[in-house]
Amino acid sequence: MIHHHPEKARLFVLDDERAHWHDKALWFVRVKRDRAAATVPEWEGLRTAAEGIKVHTLSRLAEYLEEFERKATANGIQVHWARDGEEHNRIVHGILEKRGVQRMVKSKSMLTEECHLNPYLEARGIEVVDTDLGERIVQLAGEPPSHIVMPAIHRKKEEIGELFHEKLGTPRGLSDPTLLTERARAHLREKFLKAEAGLTGVNFAIAETGGFVVVTNEGNADMGTTLPPVHIASMGIEKVIPRLADLGIFLRLLARSATGQPVSSYTTHFHSPLPGGELHLVIVDNGRSEMLSEAHRRKALCCIRCGACLNTCPVYRRSGGYSYSYLIPGPIGSVLGPHRDLAGHASLPFASSLCGSCTDVCPVKVDLHHQLLALRQEAGEEKLLPFGKRMGMKMASFAMARPALFRAGGKFARWILRVAPGLARVGPGAVWLRGRELPEPPTETFADLYDREMATRPEVKS
Amino acid sequence: MSAREAILSALRASGAAPVAAPAHPAPVQQGDPVARFLESVKGVGGHPYRVADDAALVAAVAALPVWSAPRRASLVPGIDGTVDLEAVDDPHALADLDVAAIPGEVAVAENGAVWVKGESLGPHRAVFVIPEHLVLVVRAADVVNDMQAAYGRITLPRPGYGLFISGPSKTADIEQSLVIGAHGARSCAVFVVG
User: Fold this and answer.
1) If you average pLDDT over every residue of chain A, what do you get?
2) C-alpha pair distances (Å), B193 with each of A262, A358, B35, B179
3) Which chain B residues have a beta carbon less than 8 Å from that of A204?
4) What percent of chain A is modeled with pLDDT above 70?
5) By percentage, how much of chain A surpasses pLDDT 90?
6) CA–CA separation, A447 and A452 (whole Å)
C-alpha cells in the first residue's frame, strides 16, 4: 500500500496537545536559527557562495572525486566505491569480518539509514550501537529517526524515561533530561570502550587535501574514532567540496542553520588513520548520479543536511517525521524521495503549503518549493494523483478557461454558502473542511469590483 | 566494470555544464576579536579566562577546581600533569582521565572554537574527548575574527588530523533541553594568554 501523507498526518494531529507541542519545539529551533543568522552581516553572501561552490562541484564531480581519492589514498585512507546500498553494506561487512569485529559504534549518518546498514550487520551477528543520544533513543525504541538532526524530537522526556527504564534498567519515573543524559553517557561509554570499530558519516570531503570532516555536538563521533583501531566512514558522492578554505563558508552556515549554534562542539578533520589503525572510506552513489543527470533534480544534491527546512516547515511541524514516506522527512525529503521514486512517494510533493519558507532558510539555496511544485506537475502527468484530486483539477481547469462558466460557478457557490452551507460538508470537498470554518460569502466579488472601478475610470482602461 | 568506473563514468556522462567556482564573501570584522572570543566561549557553554603571560597561566590553571583532580594530563609546556601520556600504550587506559590541558593553534572570535592540531594531542587522539574536563590554551595573537580567517591560518600536515573544539560536549536531544557533558568533556576552560 502506498504510504499516504495526509492519512498519517491525520493520525498525528488526533493528539492535539502533542501536535502543538511538536510544532512549538521545532519553531523554537527555527527562532534560534534566525537569531544566529542575524549575527552574521554577510549571511546572504555566505549562502550565495555556498550554493555556488556546491553547483560548481556538482558540475565537475567526477574530477573532484578522483582528486579526492588520489589524495586520500596518499594520506593512508583506504577508499572504496559502492554503486548502491547493498554494495555499501557488503563492503562495510567485509571490512568488519576481516578483522573479526563483533561490536561497532556508529555516529549519525543518514546514508547508512538509506542503505539499511544496521539490520544488514545485525543479521550477520554484529552489534551496532548508535551513539548520538537521539539516535540511541530511537534505536532502543525500534524506530527510525523522525528528524535528520534531532532524531528523537517526537518523544517526550517521560517516554524516554520509560524507555530507559525498560531497556537500560534506570529507575522508573526518571524524566529529567540531565539525569537521562547522564545515564545514557554511562551506558554508551561502556559501548565505546568495548567497540572494535567505529563508523561515522561525512559532512564534507575535501578534494584538495584528501581528508574529510565530521561534525558533532556530543563528541560521539570522536569517542568512536579515537578508541577502536578501525574507522569506517560512509559518504555520498555529493559530499565532496573543492578546497579546505571552502569549509570556512560551510561551517559558518551549517550549525547556525541546524540548531542556531555558532558552530558545533567538535568539527574533526580526518586526514589519516589512527597511528597503527585503519581508516576506510566508502563512497556511495545509490541513485545520486542519476539525479545529477537531470538538470531540474541536480540542485537537491547541494543539501548539507542541516534540517532547517524541516524546522521551518508548517506541514512538518504539524505532521511529524513519521507521516512522510521517505526516510528523510520535511521539504528536502519530499524532494529527494520523489526524485528517486515518484510513484512510491506521490503524496509527498503535496505535503507542503508552498509557502517557500524552506527555500528562504536553506543555507545552500536549494529551490525546494519550486521543486515541490514541479514534482506535483510530474505526479499529475504520470497520473499518480488520487481520483478525487485528478477530477477536481480537471474541473477547475475547465472552468478557469471559461470566464462565463467560472463566474456562474462562483455565483452558485456563494448562493449555496448562504442558503445551505451544510452542503459544502458533503462529498469529496469535505476533506478540506476538517478543522476549517466556512467563509462568509462576500457581497461583491473581485470581478464585480474590478468592473465597477473600470467603469468609473475610463482613462485607466485605455 | 568496477563500481568506481561505473560511478565515475555515469558522472562524466551526466552532462552538467561546467560552472565556475564563486568568490568567497569578505567577512565583516566585528569589534575586538579577543573580547568577542571570550564572549563566544561563554555562549557555547565554556569558561573563558584571560591571563597576562605564561606565569599567570600556570598559576590560573593550578587554581582551577578541576585541576585538583588526581588524573591530569598536560600537553601545554609549563603545565604539569600527573599522567604521562607517552607511557600509556592503549587509549582505553585513559578512560579514568579527569582532565587534560591542550594547546590550541587558532581561536575564532565568532564562535568560540579553538583549532587543535593532531600533533598537539600527543600520542593519543582520544585525549581531547575522553577526559571528564578540558582545559584549552591559546595565544591572544592567534585569535581571528571568523572561520574563514581561521582556515587562512590553519596548517594541516598530510597525512594528519586536527579539529575545532567549541566549548564542552553537549546535547539537546531530549526535548531540546541543553545538557552539558554528553560523551566528551563536561566542562571546558579556555585560557587566552597575552
Assistant:
1) 94
2) 23, 43, 13, 29
3) none
4) 98
5) 82
6) 9
Minimum distance, in Å, between the CA of residue A202 and any CA atom of chain B: 14
DSSP A257: H
Contacts A156 to B, Cβ<8 Å: 175
DSSP A160-200: HHHHHHHHH-PPTT---HHHHHHHHHHHHHHHHHH-SEEEE
3-state class of A426 per DSSP?
A: coil
Q: What's the whole-model pTM score?
A: 0.94
A91/A187 Cα distance (integer angstroms): 29
- The Cα-based distances of A437 to A7, A217, A305, A421, A454 in angstroms read 21, 45, 37, 11, 33
On whether the CB atoms of residues B45 and B180 are closer than 8 A, the answer is: yes
Written as one string, the DSSP assignment of A25-87 is HHHHHHHHHHHHHHT-TTHHHHHHHHHHHHHHHHHTHHHHHHHHHHHHHHTTPEEEEESSHHH
Give the residue with greater pLDDT, A296 vs B189.
Answer: B189
Instruction: State whether B126 and A263 contact (CB < 8 Å).
Output: no
Instruction: Give the model confidence (pLDDT) of A246-255 as tens digits.
Output: 999 999 999 9
Please give the Cα distance from A274 to A74 (Å, whole number): 15
Instruction: Tell if the CB–CB gap between A192 and B7 is shorter than 8 Å.
Output: no
Q: What is the pLDDT of residue A428?
A: 64
What type of residue sits at position A215?
A: V
| Facing A271 at nearest CB: one of B14, B160, B169 | B160
Closest-CA residue of chain A to B153: A245
For the beta carbon of residue B137, count every other beta carbon within 10 angstroms. 27
